[in-house]
Write a structure and sequence with these properties.
By secondary structure, the protein is mainly alpha-helical. It has one domain. It contains ten helices and four strands.
C-alpha cells in the first residue's frame, strides 16, 4: 500500500531541509556544551585565537604592560607587519611577552572568542589579568581541546601567577620547558626558560637555576640559529645570570 504512495518533489526537499536544520541545532547544542569542537573550514592549524601575555612583573615596560591580555584572530596575526604591541618596547632587551595560540574549546575561552568576533571591527578586546586567570581556571581539561591547549594554558597560567602564586608559575614554566616539542609551541621555550631561571634565583634555588641554564645552553647552542632560538640579548642575560650564580656559589672541585 505504502509503495503506491507518491510524494511531490517539493515535499521531499522540505523534509530533507528540516532534517538538516535539526542536525544543525543538535550540532550547535553539542558545541555550546563543549562536547565537540566547532569546525572552521578555513582553519587547519588548531588555533582560533592568540592572546598576548606578559609576566606579572614590575619590570615590564609600559608599552608591553599595556598590551597584556590583547586577543587576536589568526587572520590578524598573519598580516604583514603584525605586532601585538601598541608601540615599540622600551627596554633594550625586549620584555618577555608571549603570543600564545589557543583553540579554546571550554566555556570561558569560547566566550572570549565570541566577544572577539563581535568586537573585531572596533578595537578588538583585551582581557585583564584577573580575566586571564578566570579563563585558565575554567574546565579546559574536560573540553575537547584539552590536549591541544594544555601547553598554552600552562604558559598563560605561569605568566599570570608570578605574583599571586610563584609555585604555580614555576610548575607551569617547567612544564613548557620539558614538553614543548611541536613547532607551534617552540616560540614559548625561550621565554619559559628565562622566566623560570629568574623565579628560581628569586627563590634562592641557585643550584637548580644553574642546571637550567646549562640545559638552555645545550638546547640552544650558539652555533645554531632559528626562529625560536634566543636572541643575542637573551643569550647575554643567561650568560650574566650564570656568571653571578657561579660567583656567589662556586662549584666545589673534588680533591
Amino acid at each position: 500500500m505504502f509503495g503506491e504512495l507518491q510524494f511531490p518533489d517539493i515535499t521531499v526537499y522540505l523534509v530533507a531541509i528540516l532534517v538538516l536544520l535539526v542536525l544543525w541545532q543538535y550540532y550547535q547544542m553539542q558545541v555550546m556544551a563543549g562536547r565537540i569542537l566547532a569546525v572552521d573550514i578555513f582553519d587547519r592549524s588548531g588555533t582560533r585565537m592568540y592572546i598576548y601575555v606578559t609576566p606579572d612583573d614590575d619590570h615590564i615596560c609600559e608599552v608591553c604592560s599595556e598590551s597584556n591580555g590583547r586577543v587576536f584572530l589568526p587572520s590578524q596575526v598573519a598580516k604583514k607587519g603584525f605586532s601585538p604591541l601598541g608601540g615599540k618596547c622600551k627596554r633594550p632587551t625586549p620584555c618577555p611577552g608571549v603570543l600564545v595560540a589557543l583553540y579554546g574549546g571550554w566555556l570561558e575561552a569560547r566566550g572570549v572568542l565570541e566577544l572577539l568576533r563581535t568586537n573585531l571591527k572596533k578595537d578588538g578586546i583585551q582581557l585583564s589579568a584577573e580575566e586571564l586567570r578566570v579563563m585558565v581556571n575554567g574546565q579546559w581539561e574536560r573540553s575537547i581541546s584539552g590536549e591541544t591547549d594544555r601547553l598554552s594554558i600552562h604558559m598563560i597560567e605561569a605568566l599570570c601567577y608570578e605574583k599571586v602564586n610563584q609555585g604555580v608559575s614555576v610548575a607551569g614554566y617547567r612544564y613548557v620547558a620539558q614538553e614543548a616539542k611541536e613547532v607551534r609551541h617552540l616560540m614559548l621555550l625561550v621565554p619559559a626558560y628565562l622566566r623560570l631561571v629568574q623565579l628560581l634565583v628569586r627563590a634562592g634555588e641557585s643550584a637548580e637555576a644553574l642546571e637550567l641554564i646549562e640545559r638552555f645552553e645545550k638546547r640552544f647552542p650558539v652555533t645554531k640559529r632559528g626562529p625560536h632560538f634566543p636572541s643575542d640579548a637573551q643569550r647575554e642575560v643567561m650568560k650574566t645570570r650564570k656568571t653571578h650564580l657561579l660567583k656567589d656559589h662556586p662549584m666545589k672541585i673534588p680533591a
